[in-house]
Amino acid sequence: NTLRIVIETTEGTIFEASYMEVLRRINDEVFLLPGVERSHMKSLWTPSVRWVGVTEEGMEGGPVIPDNFDGSQASLEQLRANVERSGQIGQLVANDFRSTVIILPLLEKDPEGRKLNYYEFSQNLEKLRLKYETGPIKVRIVGFAKVVGDLIDGIQEVMFFLAITIGICTAVLFWHTRCVRSTLLVVACSLLAVLWLLGLLPTLGYE
Fold it and tell me: What one-character-per-residue DSSP string does 6-23 give?
């Protein structure tokens, strides 16, 4: 259950101070979201993403984002060199250097033992998208948790189509049986079976 947030720039590349600042802010905010497995989160701004190089003095390495990164041209050039040596091109960084990915592994339960609320989590992500998707910055979110959150968000439309389906089935049954009692009995038994199913799913842990 891993979520991926893609932050893309439509102007220039990721090696610009404004882009890196937006990426840093998004990284810091999603890090604090409840349900995120923070120890395995990965982005250019996480210390676990490192570069390694071989020099005449031996092996060298460090975090991709330099410790003294300040958005200056020199630090951006250093960042580019670190990215190219990190092996993250095609993984965290796009081949054309126009987007990067934040990888968010999710926990099934929070420290208090409560299951992840997909709807609430999805709403937090949408607020984040609205906050930072401005100008040349585009934010795309993919993953199971986002899909489930969107489905829950559209539950009213799902219920509307369910009501239409029940109405059509009831009309067809009545046309076939010409008996109100038989029609209502069949529809009631079918709805009761659906109700039981909706109750069994959370009981078995599949809500």
Answer: EEEESSS-S-SHHHHHHH
Cα–Cα separations (whole angstroms), residue 107 to 125, 175, 185: 16, 51, 44
Question: Is the CB of residue 147 less than 8 Å from the CB of residue 119?
Answer: no
- CB contact at 8 A, 119 and 35: no
CA-angle at 203, arms to 199 and 207, nearest 5°:
75
Chain centroid offset of residue 94 CA: 18
Contact between residue 167 and residue 24 where contact means Cβ atoms under 8 Å apart: no
Q: What are phi and psi of 80, to 5 degrees?
A: -60, -45
Could you read off the pLDDT tens digit of each residue along the chain, which spans 207 residues? 889 999 999 988 999 999 999 999 999 999 998 889 888 999 999 988 888 877 667 777 788 888 888 888 999 999 998 898 888 898 899 999 999 999 999 988 766 777 888 888 888 999 999 999 888 999 999 998 888 888 888 887 888 998 999 999 999 999 999 899 999 999 999 999 989 998 998 888 776
